[in-house]
Design a protein that fits this description.
The complex is a heterodimer of chains A (80) and B (148). Chain A is α+β, with helices and mostly antiparallel strands. Chain A contains three helices and seven strands. Chain B has a single domain, classed as Aldehyde Oxidoreductase, domain 3, CATH 3.90.1170. The chains are: A alpha+beta (80), B alpha+beta (148).
Chain lengths: 80, 148
């Protein structure tokens, strides 16, 4: 088991993949540690959101994900 | 109330969907529909809309709930394309049936403003030199402010 990271929009380009598995548990600093610099930089932006198992995280710094969780990294939407 | 909320893969006929709605709610006094299409642009070869399974459809369903609370509707259809599409193809259909026209028209307008600014879609365009992500437009957010 691990934590599944899902990269949306341009973050998938930066990550070079749509998904990636990382060891759990995972908090905010742990997540930043797992990511290459350009991805971490995007993630730090206010307008980049995080969802855990489909629930938006109000405060990214409070991220608390464990084995089996799906953490989505969501850049600003371009609209429908 | 009849409700049809869908993400659509591949080409579809928006007239069929509106026709089905009309047949399902024969007592409605009016139906308002909006179809958004891929706009012609010489430099753009294709458009791709990406979504996130766990957020995109649930978010649109939540929007439909909000619309249904705000207006008295007999039917509401929200269908949104995902994937790669080309000029002239429909991207989105919003169709609302109500007893009176104003409710139907306002419900469609409100739904479109929220879909454009609030929904979980990421869009990119294919140009001669490859794919480009489309950044959010300020205008979409000011449109949303109309609804208070």
């Amino acid at each position: 088991m691990a934590v599944k990271l899902v990269f949306l929009g341009k973050l998938a380009d930066l990550a070079g993949a749509d998904e990636r598995e990382v060891p759990g548990p995972l908090d905010w600093l742990g997540l930043l540690d797992q990511l290459e610099a350009p991805l971490a930089e995007e993630l730090r932006k206010d307008r980049t959101r995080i969802a855990v198992n489909g629930e938006l995280v109000a405060d990214k710094a409070a991220l608390d994900a464990g084995d089996g969780d799906e953490v989505a990294l969501l850049p600003p939407v371009s609209g429908g | 109330m009849l409700r049809r909320i869908e993400l659509v893969q591949g080409h579809w006929d928006t007239n069929d969907a509106v026709g089905e709605l009309a047949r399902s709610v024969p007592d409605a006094g009016g139906i308002a529909s909006f179809v958004g299409k891929v706009r012609h642009d010489d430099a753009v070869e294709a458009l791709e809309l990406l979504h996130y399974e766990k957020l995109t459809l649930p978010g649109i369903q939540e929007l439909a709930e909000t619309v249904s609370r705000r207006w008295t509707l007999e039917g509401l259809v929200i269908m949104h394309r995902v994937g790669v599409m080309h000029v002239g193809e429909p991207i989105v259909l919003v169709s609302a049936a109500a007893k009176h026209r104003r409710e139907a028209i306002e419900a469609v307008d409100f739904t479109m403003d929220h879909l454009k600014s609030d929904s979980w879609f990421w869009k990119r365009e294919k140009r001669a030199d490859g794919w480009h992500w489309i950044e959010p437009r300020e205008r979409d957010h000011s449109d949303l402010a109309r609804w208070g």
